[in-house]
Amino acid sequence: MTFVPYDRPVRAAFIGLGRIYDLNVRAYAGNPDVEVVALVDPSEERRAQRQPDWPAARTFASAAELASSGIEVDAAEVLLPAPLHADGVVEMLGYGWHVNMQKPMCNDLSEARRMLDAATASGRILRVMENYLFYEPLRQLKAAAQEGQIGEVCGYHMKMTGSGQGGWDVPVSSFEWQLEQMGRGRGILVFDDGWHKLATALWLFGPVREVRAWIGTTPVGPGVDIDAPATIVWEHDNGVRGVWDITLAMDMYLRSDYYTNDERWEITGTKGYARVNRCTGRGIQQPSLEVYADGVMRGYHALDDDWASSFRDSGRHWLRWLHTGEGPLSWSGEEAVDVLRFALAAYASSASGGVGVNPAQLAQQPPPPTGHIGI
Ligand SMILES: NC(=O)c1ccc[n+]([C@@H]2O[C@H](COP(=O)([O-])OP(=O)(O)OC[C@H]3O[C@@H](n4cnc5c(N)ncnc54)[C@H](O)[C@@H]3O)[C@@H](O)[C@H]2O)c1
C-alpha cells in the first residue's frame, strides 16, 4: 500500500493502561507529532490513574466503545495482554486505525496471517514495536561490528538470567495472562522476553537458516513452570552462529528499575569483541558497552543506557514516521513474523530432541490447545 503521512499531529489512543504504559508513555509526553485523544482499559482504576497524564483525552472501557464514540483516531498504541493480541489487533485495524503493538506479536503463524491480512484489508499499517532496536548500547554494538572495529564477525553470544528478587512491582493481572501463555507453551523467558533476544539476532545478522534448541522447565510454584534452563543455537544465512543461554536464579537479587532480567550480548570478531553488559537491569555496573580490539579495551560511559529510553525512542520513531514519513519504519508486521518463526523453530527443535529446524520451512499449524507444552 502507499502510505500518506499526516500533515497534522497524529490522533492516538492508548489501548491497555497497565504496567508497560509507564514506559510507552514516554514517547508521547511532550511530543508535537501526536495528540492523545483517548485512553481505553476495562479497569476503572487504571483509567482514573492515567487520566491526569492526558486531561483532554476521553476514557473508555473498550475499543468498541471508542470506535462508536465519534472520536477520530488515526493510530492505536496497543498495550494489551499478549493472549488478546491477535483478536484485538484485527478488531482495531478493522476500525481503520494504524496499530503499534507490543511483542510478542501472537502465538502462532495462523494468528499472524490473520493480523497481516487485516492490515492489508484495511489499508492500515501494523507495526510490532521492538524497543531493543532503539537501545543505544545495542545500536553502538551493531555499529562496532559493522564498522569492522573487531575485525570480521565470527561468533555471537547472548546470556539472560531471570531472577526472582528486585525490580519494580508487577501487577497480578500481568501474571494471570503470563500463566495463560505458559499453559499454551509460550513461556515468559523464551517467548515473551525472549522475543527481544531473537529480534536483536535477526536485526544484527539477518535471516536464520537453522535453529537447534533444548528448552527445559523449572517449577517455581503449584502449576507454574518457568521455561529455563534453555539453550538455543542457530546459524544465520551469512554463516554467523549464535547461542543464547537462559538461566533462572530465583533467589538472586538484581538491582533494576524495571524487570529483574540480567542480560548480555557479545559479538566476537577476528581481532576483538564487543559486549553490551546490561539492559533491563543493572547486573554488571561497568560501561554498558565495551569494545576490545588489538589489546585495547574501550568503555562507553556516556551512552543513554536507561532501558526506558528505548521505549521513548521506538515510540517517537513510529509517531514521527506517521506524521512525516521519515523512515524507513522499524519494524513491520512481516519482520515480526520472522521473529515468531525463529521462536517456533526453537520449540519444534526442542520437541524433536534438538534437531536442526529451518524457520522458513515451518508449516502453518493450528494453535496448540491450552495446557499443551511445546508445539
Ligand atoms: N517491550 C517490552 O519490553 C515489554 C515489557 C513488558 C510488557 N510488554 C508487553 O506489553 C503488553 C502489556 O503488558 P503489561 O505488562 O502492561 O500487562 P498488564 O497486565 O500490566 O496490563 C494490561 C492492561 O490491559 C488491560 N486490558 C485487558 N483487556 C483489555 C481490553 N480488552 N481492552 C483494553 N485494555 C485491556 C488490563 O486491564 C491492563 O490494565 C504485553 O503484550 C506484554 O508482552 C512488553
Strand portion: 25-35%
Biggest β-sheet: count, sense, barrel? 8 strands, mixed
C-alpha termini separation: 34 Å
Bound molecules: nicotinamide-adenine-dinucleotide
Strand order of the largest sheet: 8-11-12-7-13-14-15-16
Question: What is the helix content?
Answer: 25-40%
Radius of gyration: 20 Å
**Which blocks of ≥5 consecutive residues have pLDDT under 50?**
369-375
List the secondary-structure elements in sequence, H or E.
Answer: EHEHEHEHEHEHEHHEEEEEEEEEHH
Task: Give the class from helix and strand content and strand pairing.
Answer: alpha/beta
Number of helices: 10
Question: Using DSSP, what is the number of strands?
Answer: 16
Mean pLDDT: 95
- How does the overall form come out from the CA principal axes? globular
Quick summary:
The chain is α/β, with parallel strands linked by helices and 375 residues long.
Report on this structure:
Residues 369-375 have low confidence and may be disordered. It contains ten helices and 16 strands. The strands form three sheets. Strands 8-11-12-7-13-14-15-16 form an eight-stranded mixed beta sheet. A six-stranded parallel beta sheet has the order 3-2-1-4-5-6, sandwiched between helices. It is globular, with a radius of gyration of 20 Å. Helix 4 runs parallel beside helix 5 (109-122). With 375 residues, the chain is α/β, with parallel strands linked by helices. Nicotinamide-adenine-dinucleotide binds at residues 15-20, 40-43, 46, 62-63, 79-82, 84, 102-103, 131, 171, 173-174, 192.
